[in-house]
């Protein structure tokens, strides 16, 4: 599925956001591959960024959805694409960090098949209970675990950040939890509201409408500092979970070997788009906090988190289970 943004291309040259001129690039539409179906958070982010880049740079961008395989189908497509600067992958942490550990065989190599362009969003997870639950705080939840309430609901196909966060929380608290996977955030939410599972851990974006409507009561977000999206909700660091600092990121990548000047054009253009206050406001309303990291800094975080998450996934017995 393709959605073009028909804004005029510059005829002879494209002006780079930094004020330089990259002759004859882009000459044709740039394809942004989203490894999810239309309508989700990554898809919405990509379309908003594509539109903003088009407005600011006079370029034309096309969003193409290639869902399936926990983002592996879209990632494989971009990994095999010609590194000519005209194919960009919208990836999440699972694409680059979790899949290489979870899958026995993977059709792409994150460290060798892609070059990072920029991180776009950094979205904490939120631990929530039903509004009529007797649990008011995360400390009370920990106490309830000692009474045998050890299940938690999660979205099976997008929940690895939640599973990792829970693994870290349970280790620091000296407890054991049982994940109850559901085929989507909505069924997981209904299980918690129906009293079948006591708590839900999910990304902030899908939880936010329910939190705003008081259909969920947030206990903590899974970062060391509070998020401006939920400024009144304690962070994990405040609750004594010093090792819990986890959020689900979304970023942009090009095939490895892409011309450095073109990759730099994309980095500058995407960073400028993500710096637009109107775009930041729209994404924050959707539960996505814009956190910009340029390619080199983004790669450093990927390398750093890759080591940490691999250890947690392996210790949880999940490595090579897909």
UniProtKB/TrEMBL annotation:
Cleaved signal peptide residues: 1-23
Alphabetical list of Gene3D superfamilies matching this protein: Bordetella uptake gene, domain 1, Periplasmic binding protein-like II
UniProt keyword terms in alphabetical order: Signal
Annotated Pfam families: TctC
InterPro entries, per the entry: BUG, Bug_dom1
Keyword match Signal: yes
Transmembrane segments: none
Family assignment from sequence similarity: Belongs to the UPF0065 (bug) family.
PANTHER family: BLR1237 PROTEIN, TRICARBOXYLATE-BINDING PROTEIN
Protein's name in the database: Tripartite tricarboxylate transporter substrate binding protein
Origin species: Alcaligenes nematophilus
């Amino acid at each position: 599925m393709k959605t073009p943004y028909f804004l005029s291309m510059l005829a002879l040259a494209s002006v780079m956001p930094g004020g330089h001129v990259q002759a004859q690039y882009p000459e044709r539409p740039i394809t942004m591959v989203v490894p999810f179906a239309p309508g989700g958070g990554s898809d919405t982010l990509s379309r908003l960024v594509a539109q903003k880049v088009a407005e600011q740079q006079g370029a034309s961008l096309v969003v193409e959805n290639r869902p399936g395989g926990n983002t592996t189908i879209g990632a494989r497509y971009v990994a095999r694409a010609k590194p000519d600067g005209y194919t960009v992958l919208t990836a999440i942490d699972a694409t680059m960090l979790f899949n290489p550990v979870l899958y026995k065989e993977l059709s792409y190599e994150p460290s060798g098949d892609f070059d990072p362009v920029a991180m776009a969003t950094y979205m904490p997870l939120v631990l929530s209970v039903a509004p009529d639950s007797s649990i008011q705080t995360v400390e009370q939840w920990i106490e309830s675990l000692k009474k045998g309430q050890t299940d938690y609901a999660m979205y099976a196909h997008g929940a690895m950040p939640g599973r990792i966060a829970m693994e870290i929380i349970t280790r620091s608290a000296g407890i054991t939890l049982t994940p109850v996977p559901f085929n989507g955030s909505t069924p997981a939410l209904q299980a918690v509201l129906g009293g079948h599972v006591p708590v839900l851990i999910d990304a902030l974006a899908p939880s936010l409408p329910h939190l705003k409507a008081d259909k969920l009561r947030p206990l903590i977000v899974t970062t060391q500092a509070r998020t401006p999206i939920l400024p009144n909700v304690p962070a994990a660091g405040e609750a004594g979970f010093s090792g819990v600092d986890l959020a689900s990121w979304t970023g942009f990548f090009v095939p490895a070997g892409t011309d450095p000047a073109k990759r730099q054009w994309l980095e500058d253009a995407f960073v400028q788009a993500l710096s637009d206050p109107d775009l930041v406001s729209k994404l924050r309303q959707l539960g996505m906090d814009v956190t910009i990291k340029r390619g080199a800094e983004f790669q450093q975080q990927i390398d750093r988190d890759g080591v940490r998450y691999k250890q947690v996934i392996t210790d949880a017995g999940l490595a090579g289970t897909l």
